[in-house]
Write a structure and sequence with these properties.
- With about 170 residues, the chain is mostly helical.
- The chain has one domain (about 1-160).
- It has helices at about 1-35, 40-60, 75-115, 125-155.
């Protein structure tokens, strides 16, 4: 399972490179050759949305989200585990469930209509883009559950937590 998740994560990283290359091509074609295609321009927005929405869970997995940290670094492993557990159960999971519930009809309608771009020559897959509104919270819920179970294991003394990011020395 971990191999599958790592492969999916590498795919999300690839989206950023693809987005940069397409943006470069759009600029060169527009200003160098006076050419442009709506679908090519829209693809940059699609890739940006996919990168952000699919990458949120991986950012959470690597503890790379921006955090206002006043006390967390001063806590010991069990204190950090409590903060992680409570933050996940009281904040992350309810917000993700709300996003899923609030987005469900919106995404369902886009699928029903097989919604496409309102622009002539645009990408006909707006329904796929809107599907990310369900994929993002689903992935965040899965990652949140992993964090909650890991935190519970630390709190109950079942495992030793990984060191905080500022104590990890990558080579």
């Amino acid at each position: 399972m971990r191999r599958l998740i790592d492969g999916f994560e590498r795919g999300v990283h690839f989206l950023t490179l693809l987005m940069v290359l397409i943006t470069f091509a759009v600029v060169v074609l527009r200003y160098g050759f006076d050419l442009g295609w709506i679908a090519m321009q829209e693809s940059v927005s699609y890739l940006h949305a996919a990168n952000f929405m699919l990458g949120a869970a991986f950012t959470l997995r690597h503890d790379a989200h921006v955090r206002v940290d006043i006390f967390y670094q001063k806590f010991g492993p069990r204190g950090r585990a409590w903060v992680d557990l409570l933050g996940t159960v009281l904040l992350l999971l309810p917000v993700c469930v709300f996003i899923l519930v609030a987005s469900w009809d919106y995404v369902r309608e886009a699928w029903h209509l097989m919604e496409g771009s309102p622009e002539a020559g645009g990408i006909p897959g707006v329904w796929l883009l809107k599907s990310l509104l369900l994929a993002m919270p689903a992935l965040l819920i899965l990652q949140g559950l992993a964090i909650a179970f890991r935190s519970l294991a630390v709190i109950t003394g079942g495992t030793t937590p990984a060191p905080p990011k500022d104590e990890v020395h990558d080579l």
